[in-house]
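Example 106.
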Amino acid sequence: MRGAYRRIHNWIVPPYATLLVEDTLPKQLKRRTLYIVEEDGFQEQAAMICPCGCHSVLHMNLLPDERPCWRVTRHDDGTTTLHPSVWRKKDCGSHFWFRNGRVVWC
Ligand SMILES: [Zn+2]
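Predicted structure in complex with zinc ion:
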C-alpha cells in the first residue's frame, strides 16, 4: 500500500528543483531540492534531504576519482537525473532512483 501511495504522490507533486551552489552547502537544505556543489568549475558532490522523511542529508560524491561516484545529468526541462541509484545501507535504508527530478523507490 505504501509503495502505491508513494507512486501516486510522486505523480501529483512537481519534480525536485536543482540548485547549483559554490564551494559549500547551506546549513539548512530545502526539501525537494537537489543541491550540486561546484568547486573551481568541478562538480564535487550532490546533496538532498532523504526523501523517506527521516530528515538526514544524503551526500553523493561526484568526483570521478573517488568511490562511490554518481553521475549527474541535467535535462532541458531543468530537472536532474542521478546515476546509479542512491542506497543508504545504514539508518533508514532508503534505496531509490532519482530520475528527472523524481524519486523512484526500489
Ligand atoms: Zn531516510
